[in-house]
Amino acid sequence: MKTHFSPSQSEQNAHQLWSQFTRYNQEAFWQQYEPLIDKTATKISSITQPKPSKKVRAVTPQTFHYLIFPYRIRFISFIVTIGIILSLLFLTSISTSEAKSYGNIISIIILLLLANYLWVFSIYDVSDEGLIITRNLSLDKTQFSWKEIQAVKIYCSGADEGTTTHLNILLKTNEVFYFKYPLFEDDHLTFLKILGQKRIAIDSTI
Q1: What is the pLDDT of residues 4-27, one digit of tens each?
Q2: What is the CATH number of domain 123-206?
Q3: Are 200 and 152 in contact (CB under 8 A)?
Q4: pLDDT over 70 for what percent of the chain?
Q5: Number of alpha carbons in the 13 Å side-chain half-sphere of residue 31
Q6: Torsion angle, CA of 58/63/64/67, rounded to 10 degrees?
Q7: Distance between CA atoms of residues 28 and 171, nearest Å
Q8: What is the largest CA-CA distance in the chain?
C-alpha cells in the first residue's frame, strides 16, 4: 500500500515560483527559490535520519558447572586416590596370595574410575566479553570472544543410561572446538538464553 504525502508550504511556494519563472526574472527567482529549497532539504534530512540500532544487553558474569565439591577438595581427593592406587599396586606386586592379588586389582580398577571422575570436569564462565571453558584438574582454559563464535551445537551421544552431552563451538574461521556439556537443566536454559542474547546461532537437541 503506497503512502501519499501532501506537499509542504515550502514546496507549494517553490512550485508557484517555477510557474512564474522567465529568463527575464532569473535573479529575483533564485533569491526566493534557494531559501525554499534549503528548508525542504533540512526537513527531509530530519525525517529520513535513521533510528539508532538497539544495543545488545550486557551479560552478567556467571559460572556454570556441575561440581558437587569445590576444586580444592576435588584435587586433594584425586591425590589421595592416586596414592592408594600406587600402594595397592605395590602390595599386589609383593603379595604371595592369589586371592589378595585379585582383590587388590578390583580395588585398583574402582579407584581408577574414581580418579577419572575427579579429574574430568568442565566449568563455563560467561561475561559480556565472551566465554571461558575450564577443563579438568589441570585447569586447561579455552577462551572465546562472542564476536568470533558463529554457532553452537549441543547434543547427546550414547544410550539412554550412558548418555553424554557434548557442546561444539563453530568459529567464523570454520574452526570447531569440542567440549563435554554436563550442565544442570536450569543452567542449560540460562546458557541458551545468553547465547541468544549475543545473537549466536544455536542447534540444541536436548
Answers
A1: 445 556 556 655 655 555 555 556
A2: 2.30.29.30
A3: yes
A4: 70
A5: 4
A6: 180
A7: 65
A8: 127
All 3 cell numbers of residue 135? Answer: 577443563
Provide the residue count of the chain: 206
In degrees, to the nearest 5, what angle opens at C-alpha 69 toward C-alphas 64 and 74? 110
- Structural domain boundaries in the chain: 9-48, 61-119, 123-206
The cell for 65 is 558447572
Cβ atoms of 133 and 142 closer than 8 Å: yes
Calculated CA dihedral for residues 3, 4, 8, 13, nearest 10 degrees: 150
The reported pTM is 0.63
Per-residue three-class SS string for the chain:
CCCCCCCCHHHHHHHHHHHCCCHHHHHHHHHHHHHHHHHHHHHHHHHHCCCCCCCCCCCCCEEECCCCCCHHHHHHHHHHHHHHHHHHHHHHHHCCCHHHHHHHHHHHHHHHHHHHHHHCCEEEEECCCEEEEEECCCCEEEEEEHHHEEEEEEEEECCCCCCEEEEEEEECCCCEEEEECCCCHHHHHHHHHHHHHCCCEEEECC
Do residues 153 and 170 lie in contact, with contact meaning Cβ atoms separated by under 8 Å? yes
